Amino acid sequence: MYSLTNKLIDNGHEMQVRVYYEDTDFSGVVYHSNYLKYMERSRTEWLRHLQIFHQELAKEDSAFAIHKMSLKFGPPAVIDDLLTVRTELKKLGGARSFLRQDVLRVESDGSEILLCGADVEVAFINHGGGAKRFPDDLRDKLEGN
């Protein structure tokens, strides 16, 4: 059986995503908003690898929320492409994390083509919406300690 890669890397995470028909527009090109979905899945899988689970955070009245995201699009992904979504922690503040996320296509020669890149600022919040400091145990997990 064939499975897609989903693994921790230094300071982050990588996972593979296959482009399906449902991800594309009428011409077989990935619809732009689907890159955001791929990135969301990668952030969630990264947290799961770190043993950070959204349901447990909710019990503590906590959550992650995207505060700011800057995107740059390159050439499009198309149906049947195998993509790599790379998430890297760049900085961890008191209540915010700063990530770089790239959606890449690996070419047959091994080179990577950037299809969509994002600088992402994620806030750690109370369910009411206000920012809160990362607890020490969560900070340790995010920093790989």
Question: What report would you give on this structure?
Answer:
This protein is of the alpha+beta class and 145 residues long. It has one domain (6-142): Thiol Ester Dehydrase, Chain A, CATH 3.10.129. Helices cover 20% and strands 41% of the residues. It has helices at 34-49, 54-59, 136-142, and strands at 6-9, 12-18, 62-73, 82-92, 96-106, 112-126. The protein has a 6-stranded antiparallel sheet. Strand 5 and strand 6 form a beta hairpin. The longest helix is centred in the N-terminal third of the chain and has 16 residues, at 34-49.
What proportion of the residues is helical, as a percent range?
A: 10-25%
Q: Which structural class do the helices and strands define?
A: alpha+beta
Q: List the helices and strands in order.
A: EEHHEEEEH
Rounded average pLDDT? 95
Determine the CATH topology. Thiol Ester Dehydrase, Chain A
Could you write a compact summary of the structure shown?
The protein has helices at residues 34-49, 54-59, 136-142; strands spanning 6-9, 12-18, 62-73, 82-92, 96-106, 112-126.
